[in-house]
Design a protein that fits this description.
The protein is α/β, with parallel strands linked by helices. It is built from 6 helices and 17 strands. Its EC number is 2.4.99.17.
Length: 339
């Protein structure tokens, strides 16, 4: 029996060629592993067939966050090249928290030039190494959208031809620096098929941060300082969740970000705010009955969340099965439905 708090318990062997570098077309032609956690059964499907595993009256909850093209390239007034990664919009409309490269050369007071229409002044150097930048320009947001690049995960080495391929079809609230990847498999047609079957689809917002890629690096996973992310959920959705449960139907989370949002609400009763909820085995889920999610990195907090939901030993089993069956892993990879 593995120690559930030992980081090594969440390691697994993954051949590099199974890390998906590009998304499949169409979106819903990706593979789907269907996992029954009660009967401990595993089936192999295609994502568009997920309709067959959902019932009338079930409630699907998706994350409507939109990824911003957060990677910007420019230069200092001296002509030296620089690169920044926007992390978080601050309450002052033009101010952003950002990571900068080269970190040792970008000082408070420096002006960074990205285009004729967009500059930024470094107004603070924070203890964690990030900077506060004040952007200067007429239509700052439009220019960031024009010249920024999608901040793809560190394990994706191919350039993305189409920016929209790293957005879900229902993305609308800008603020994420990583996509809620479980949602990338849904097409407008599939969403219609679900609605026609009497399945309700509702939205929450959680702005996915860079911390989502950060591996846990403490030997005892309980010592890990988990990342914080902003979330928002409506009163109307809370009522729908209560109604769904009352009718004996299921609440299905599309992605770990939706799990974090719903379970944060269950824990705090707050409709919005920053959450640093950390879910690992054993965990008593209050709202989520079923989960659609991609295959996650070894030693990641997301793998721990899945292990808490599906039970640790069984999770290990279906991850090993996915490797054996050559599923595609991570952000552009295949998916699983756990119920």
């Amino acid at each position: 029996m593995n120690n559930l708090y030992d980081l090594e318990s969440y390691n697994y062997e993954l051949p590099e060629e199974l890390i998906a570098q590009t998304p499949v077309e169409p979106r819903d032609s990706s593979r789907l592993m269907v996992i029954n956690k009660e009967n401990k059964t595993i089936k192999h499907e295609v994502f568009k067939n997920i309709v067959e595993y959902l019932n009338e009256g079930d409630l699907i909850v998706v994350n409507n966050t939109k990824v911003i093209p957060a990677r910007l390239y420019g230069y200092k007034e001296t002509g030296a090249k620089i690169e920044i990664l926007l992390l978080e919009k601050l309450s002052n409309e033009n101010n952003w928290k950002a990571l900068v490269r080269p970190g040792n050369k970008i000082k408070k007071g420096n002006v960074l030039i990205f285009s004729d229409k967009l500059k930024a002044k470094v107004i603070e150097h924070l203890k964690d190494g990030s900077r506060i930048l004040e952007f200067i320009g007429e239509d700052i947001w439009r220019e960031i959208n024009n010249i920024g690049e999608m901040p793809l995960p560190p394990y994706i080495h191919k350039k993305l031809e189409n920016k929209n391929r790293y957005q879900t079809k229902y993305a609308k609230i800008e603020g994420a620096v990583a996509a809620p990847t479980a949602g990338l498999h849904f097409t407008p047609n599939l969403l219609n098929n679900l609605k026609e079957k009497g399945i309700d689809i509702e939205e929450v917002t959680l702005h996915v941060g860079l911390g989502t890629f950060r591996p846990v690096n403490t030997k005892d996973i309980r010592d890990h300082d988990i990342h914080e992310e902003y979330y928002s959920i409506s009163k109307e959705l809370i009522s729908k969740i209560e109604e769904t449960k009352k009718n004996g139907k299921r609440v299905i989370a599309v992605g770990t970000t939706v799990v974090r949002t719903l379970e944060s609400y269950a824990k705090t009763n707050k409709l919005s705010g920053n959450t640093n909820i950390y879910i690992y085995p054993p965990y008593d889920f209050k709202i989520v009955d079923a989960l659609i999610t991609n295959f996650h990195l070894p030693k990641s907090s997301l793998l721990m969340l899945v292990s808490a939901f599906a039970e640790y030993n069984f999770t290990l089993k279906f991850y090993n099965e996915a490797v054996k069956e050559k599923y595609r892993f991570f952000s552009f990879g295949d998916s699983m439905f756990i119920y």
